[in-house]
Design a protein that fits this description.
The protein is an alpha+beta fold and 136 residues long. The protein contains 2 helices and 7 strands.
Length: 136
């Protein structure tokens, strides 16, 4: 069977010039930090995936969702390859909490210029491209 990349969606949520990040657990990139996100499901729109994943992982609602960029993310050590669709959204309502403790250990709002580390590969690749969610 031919291997193909999977499609991941990461959602950069802006609130008061900060972005929401989670520390990963029990998945590739364990211990690294990334925005909420997950896999794009079959027949799912990007915006719907963003809303669903953010609500499932953090309990918050988002608005003004748009595509921010794409990265080609190869995880050689884990034998995985993803195309990541980075979405940008604004915080709408709710309290950001860890709703899936089996997938995340910590959560917090961070300045884009002072993110926690290490960063998950897709976020590293997005930053390397010069993207800044506060200027988008």
């Amino acid at each position: 069977m031919e291997e193909r990349p999977k499609v991941g969606v990461g959602v950069l949520i802006k609130k008061d010039d900060k972005i929401l990040f989670l520390q990963r657990k029990n998945a590739h990139g364990e211990g690294s930090w990334c925005p909420p996100g997950g896999h794009l499901e079959f027949n799912e729109e990007f915006e719907e995936c963003a809303k669903r994943e953010v609500l499932e992982e953090t309990g918050i609602k988002i608005k003004n969702i748009k595509i921010a960029g794409l990265t080609n993310d190869i995880f050689k050590e884990e034998g995985k390859h993803y195309i990541t669709i980075h979405m940008l959204a604004e915080y709408d309502s709710g309290e950001a909490t860890i709703k899936e403790p089996e997938k995340s250990t910590e959560i917090g709002w961070f300045a884009w210029t002072n993110l926690p580390g290490p960063l998950f590969t897709p976020t590293q690749n997005l930053k390397k491209s010069g993207f800044n969610p506060l200027n988008f």
